[in-house]
Amino acid sequence: MASLRRLAATATLLAAISLPARAQPPEATPSPAGQPPAAPALTPPAAPDAGVAQPSNDLGVRPADDRLLPRLDVFFPEGDLDLRVSRLINEVFFEGQVKYNVVSGDITAFLRYKYYGLRRTTQLTVFDSISFSRIENNSNDFDRVRGALVLQQWPLSYNHRTSFLAEFDKISTNKPTEVDRLLRLGSTNTLVRYSYQFGTPEDGRSNAIVGEPRAQTERLFSAFREIGPGGAGFTAAVTYGFPWGPGDYDYVKLEFEALKRFDVTRRSFLIGRLAGGSYPHAGSVEPDPTLPSSSEPQIDRLRIPSGDFFQLTGRDALLGVKDRRHGTEVLLTTWEYFMPWFIEKPHHLLWLDWDNWYWVLYSGYGTVGFDKKVYSDFSNYIPDAGVGFESSVRLRKYRFFLSGIVAQALKGRGGVEARVSVKSYR
Fold it and tell me: Could you tell me which residues come within 8 angstroms of residue 133 by beta carbon, excluding any fewer than 6 positions away?
């Protein structure tokens, strides 16, 4: 009930943010084709784009009712809901965001203020995140992170940017194992991050690496991302969690991701992604000998926040892997081949107008661990594969982007993973 009250209060705040503003510029429907603005993916039906599935609508000024629609994303079977309401007034951008999981009750709320200067953009964010134990554990134990951050970005050009972030997090929990860890390590995480991006400024995954990973709207496939010029993108970031002042953690984290699109035929294409991360430095503490040993002793002794360890699971990792192993070293690659079924040829079915449909063949390969030897130990790598689809649909004046996949790890005991996402266009 407490989480529902928090959700209702946050929704009320977002409703207030969504009131009409006087200075609201025309908005363009985001393109899932991964093309820069110089070659927008949304084109008239007479000249359909060769990219991925996208709604068929004309660009231009929308009526006030359409501009007031928030951005909504729904993910199954996780039960995640992502709601954002934003307004641009002169050079200042205000946004409220709520991420809620209807299954576990996890909820995260963000309030953002972003100022667009001539040579630099400045963003101030406050957030509160509560995550509960997995539903099969039948427990009310939770982790909570409250904090604030300042993010500054310097556009070198439209496709090149550098960023600097400073963040303060306060961590709390009532999980017995985590309570002991916080007592030994501390509950305050202070960090700074410097990063570089090559690609469009609307790439959500790239922005999550350099900015707010908690706020990321995770997609099933890479083709939805606005990759960059020539269908390529690259992001790299170095993070330092420092133990000075109020800070309790001590680590240096490196992350990178490279993305490339290869056009196979006029309308089919292949997207490859290579991502990795490493902790070249992490402080440590001695475990408490009076407590029972943990199943993951490396996590207990390293001065790294529990939520910052790398994993292979998730929508931005290997889609067919259920193994929840953690690590300080990770390397993975994914490949997605898109084949069109129909493009810009509406089909009416189940009260919906299906404008585009792409079949997707997926494969991935990756490893995670606590030692750099995992990179050369090929017996530790896990392959996975699957088949999915992406489609754009319309219901009256509303437009949606629908994705789904069935994938399975080809090593280990994991079963089939089925995932679906629905995105609404403003």
Answer: 104, 139, 140, 141, 142, 175
